[in-house]
Each structure stands twice: as structure tokens, then as C-alpha cells.
Write a structure and sequence with these properties.
Blueprint: E1 6-8, H1 15-22, H2 26-34, H3 40-43, E2 44-48, E3 54-61, E4 64-69, H4 78-92, E5 97-103, H5 107-115, E6 119-129, E7 144-148, H6 154-165, H7 175-181, E8 194-198, E9 201-209, E10 216-224, H8 233-247, E11 252-258, H9 264-269, E12 273-284
Parallel strand pairs: 4-5, 10-11
Antiparallel strand pairs: 1-2, 2-3, 3-4, 5-12, 6-11, 6-12, 7-8, 8-9, 9-10
Helix pairs in contact: 1-2
């Protein structure tokens, strides 16, 4: 680290300054530090500048990791130092590969990872859909009903979402980890998270967040059970979420999609447009 900079593990008490530095929600940082399988005392590291302000931070859990450096601290070697720490910690925990996501506007971060032998494995796109008037609702497929999420839906929603994500994610999340990263976040909005049923079986879910300081509704997870796809259920869930957020003063809808899902074209057909992108890099250790 540069002279005067110090390092220590991160705690949830640091969530607000980390979130401000990283440009994410406070409860996302809290969830990351409290996710099952991550011991923040050894799996996280925060860099403080000489004044004691957060300059950068990193965490690693299994093959997943993240390194964020504040804009005004870039070019000081903090990113390279944290990536080295991530790789060492990953090896110590018995992992043979590590991945992390870099904002496509962070050219220095991209150059750093490529220089260290990281390869591109996926792209993430942030899509938005401005809504100027109350969005119309499509006719539901025969036998399908939609209602807001309730606590009793948690296990079934988790199953549908993880089954859908198995095709592209490298590791299946356990229920406790999924819950901590979604429905246990303070910004989770159950009343604005529609779930679809075929009879008494949950077959689709849109897990939504009401992020502070945002005029948009945020869809964190969207999935439909494999045997129910192609019927327009995903479109209906998006439309219901958009309507509910609109009525709650959040007229725009935002979501991220992963290149492994193959869903980008579907979202574009629904009138959503790409506003931002990130790239997932991975390296064998």
C-alpha cells in the first residue's frame, strides 16, 4: 500500500462509506459481508487513506470476488494489491479459480485483470424501461395467476430461480445465501415482487427491490420454471412489477441480465434498452 494507507477487515459498520465509495446500496454491502460461507474477518479487506476514509475494498468467497477502488484513488496500486490479496486468499480457502466483475468504463481495472491472465467469461447488461403512463397488462396464459410475494413463497421461489440459473452460474447458491442476498435485504419489496402460479404451484417470480435515492423499480431476480416458459409468464411478471412500481412513484424499471441467460433479446422486445454493462473475468490459480 502507498505510504500512510492502512488495511483491515471490513465490518457491517463500514457499509455506508463502502457503499458510497463503490456506488452501490448500503444493504448490498451488508448482505455481501453477512452471506453464509464468507467470514468477513478473513475474507474481506478494506483500505483506508491517511485521513481514515475508505479508499478501496475487496471480498472473496469461493470462486467469487470483488475489488472496488474509489475513483480518486485509482492509479496508486491499490487495485493490484487487492487483486493479489484476493488470489492468495482464494488459494488459502482451497479454490483453484477466481472471478470478479469489472465495470466496462473502468479501463484501468480491465487492463489490470488482463495483464494478470484473466479471461472474459461473461457480460452483464443493465437495462431500463422508462414508463410515462400506467403500463398495460397482458392477458395471462390460461391457468396462470399472479399475486405479490409472501413469506410462504420463499422456498418455492428460491427453487425456481436457482433451477433457472443453474444453466449459467458456476455454483448453486444455498437457500440461506440466496435469502440473505435477496429477500432478507432491507430494500426487498415483497408487495412489489410478483409471483406466478399454475394452480397451487409457484412457476415464476420477480424478486424486486425499492432502492433508496432512486426513482426506479429494481428487479433483482426474474425466473420462470422450465416447463412453463414460452407462455408469456416472464412478460406478465415484468408488466406487473412495472405497474406496481409506477403506482408507488417509481415509474422506471431497471434490471440486469447475464449473457449466460440468453434473455437480452427478450427484454429488448419488451421495450427495455441497455444503459450500462460490466464484464466478468476469471483466472485459474
Amino acid at each position: 500500500m502507498p505510504v500512510g494507507f492502512t488495511c483491515r477487515p471490513a465490518t457491517t459498520a463500514d457499509a455506508a462509506p463502502i457503499a458510497e465509495m463503490s456506488g452501490v446500496a448500503v444493504d448490498e454491502v451488508e448482505a455481501s459481508l453477512e452471506r453464509p460461507g464468507l467470514d468477513a474477518s478473513v475474507d474481506s479487506l478494506m483500505v483506508l487513506d491517511p485521513a481514515g476514509d475508505v479508499a478501496a475494498w475487496a471480498w472473496v468467497r469461493g470462486r467469487r470476488s470483488q475489488v472496488d477502488v474509489g475513483a480518486k484513488y485509482r492509479g496508486l496500486g491499490l487495485g493490484n494489491g487487492l487483486v493479489e490479496w484476493v488470489e492468495r486468499r482464494a488459494v488459502e480457502s482451497g479454490t483453484d479459480r477466481v472471478a470478479q466483475t469489472v465495470d466496462d468504463e473502468d479501463h484501468a481495472g480491465t487492463t489490470l485483470l488482463r495483464a494478470r491472465g484473466y479471461d472474459v467469461i461473461a457480460t452483464n447488461w443493465k437495462l431500463t424501461k422508462p414508463v410515462d403512463e400506467e403500463p398495460p397488462q397482458p392477458e395471462l396464459p390460461a391457468g396462470i395467476t399472479i399475486r405479490p410475494f409472501s413469506g410462504e413463497d420463499a422456498q418455492a421461489a428460491y427453487q425456481v430461480i436457482q433451477d433457472a440459473f443453474d444453466d449459467w452460474q458456476s455454483r448453486r447458491w444455498g437457500f440461506d445465501e440466496w435469502a440473505r442476498m435477496t429477500i432478507e435485504r432491507t430494500t426487498f419489496a415483497p408487495g412489489l415482487s410478483p409471483v406466478a402460479f399454475a394452480g397451487n404451484e409457484l412457476v415464476g417470480a420477480a424478486i424486486c427491490l425499492a432502492l433508496p435515492d432512486s426513482g426506479a423499480g429494481y428487479v433483482e431476480h426474474l425466473a420462470v420454471r422450465a416447463d412453463q416458459r414460452g407462455k408469456g409468464i416472464a412478460r406478465a411478471l415484468i408488466a406487473r412489477a412495472s405497474l406496481d412500481f409506477y403506482r408507488h412513484g417509481r415509474p422506471d424499471l431497471v434490471l440486469w441480465t447475464h449473457s449466460g441467460t440468453g434473455a437480452l433479446a427478450m427484454y429488448e422486445r419488451l421495450g427495455m434498452t441497455v444503459q450500462h454493462s460490466t464484464t466478468v473475468f476469471s483466472r485459474k490459480l
